[in-house]
Amino acid sequence: MGICDRLRGRLALAPGVLDAARSDFAPATGDAGRRLDEVVDAFAHGYNAVLRGGYDAAELPAGLRGFGYEGAAMSSALLDLMTVSRGRRLHELAGGDGAGHIHLINVGAGWAYARMRLRPWWTVRADAAPGEQGVGTPLLRWLAWDGWGFHRAFFAPRRVFIEHAVGPPRVRRICDQGAGRALWFYAGADPDRIGDVINGFPGVRRPDLWAGVALAAAYTGAQPADVLAVLAERAAAHRAHIAQGAAFAAKAHLLAGEMPEASATAVRVLTGVEPGVAARWADDALAASIGGPDSPTGYEGWRGGIRHAWTRKNERQTVG
């Protein structure tokens, strides 16, 4: 048995491992609970599929395939890190159909770094050929820190949500967006629980946590419009960050060629516009960042551009 075969056996996620990790999470009820379970199962499917030989997105229904790519990216990056292959498997995953899920692939890679107690991008090539939207595309690759923050909050929720542990200072805001996505699961997708947890954080960290919550809410499509309206109300002064997170979700779904109706509804509630418009905010803000710094500062400029687009939209409506 070769080293890769031995690694695959050791790394496989046994049934129930992710459920056990959620033992301290607040239970989500009804359709929301079923949807979050489907998301976790899809992640585990993609993760284990790579270890079995390869991830075939067609094995999952539309709307869940991105979560499968997130899991597949984690196990691909783990194998790359353990065999020092400079990201070969991760880049292969990002080719072909994987290009439509590039956001989730970058996020999934961040899970692997967190699992290995490393900081992205150690030993994995983060560069892409000119013109390619590869794993290392400028700014998108910083999403790995979002995945890093999600992993830490998902597997050590007390440390993050109660003790308020902080990520590395340079990327703290990106990590907090990832923690916000994990909070959606930790709080059972309940707006009041989410608001109570976020209000316990220092004020400077709340906007990014809300952005992550909205990203998860819009991408999972786990809650109906009336619950999402309550979520937006709880966000209060951070509505622009809510819109930014939802716009990220809209772009990720549309790039993959799918927009589940539940996610489309979430985007409309959280941004006030159609998913295509929200996705254009993300595209325009990213285009405006071309030539800028490939750094956390550049990434925050991208997010800020989306918030600015939402603010302008609301200002025009107020004037009208």
Q: How would you describe what is shown here?
A:
- The chain is mostly helical and 320 residues long.
- Helices cover 66% and strands 0% of the residues.
- Residues 125-134 have low confidence and may be disordered.
- What is the number of domains? 1
Order of helices and strands: HHHHHHHHHHHHHHHH
* Number of separate strands: 0
Rg over alpha carbons: 18 Å
Supply the helix-strand structural class. Answer: mainly alpha
Detail the poorly predicted runs.
125-134
Shape: globular
Q: Give the integer mean of the pLDDT values.
A: 91
Kindly estimate the percentage of residues that lie in beta strands according to DSSP. under 5%
The major pleated sheet works out as: none
N/C terminus separation? 70 Å
| Number of H- or I-type helical stretches | 16
How helix-rich are the residues, as a percent range?
Answer: 55-70%
Q: How do you describe this structure in short?
A:
The chain is mainly α and 320 residues long.
Overview features:
320 residues, 16 helices, 66% helix
Helices and strands in order, then pairings?
Elements lengths: L2 H9 L5 H5 L8 H23 L12 H19 L4 H7 L7 H14 L27 H13 L1 H6 L9 H15 L4 H9 L6 H15 L4 H11 L3 H17 L5 H11 L3 H14 L7 H24 L1
Helix pairs in contact: 1-4, 3-4, 4-5, 4-6, 6-7, 7-9, 9-11, 10-12, 11-13, 11-14, 12-14, 13-14, 13-15, 13-16, 15-16
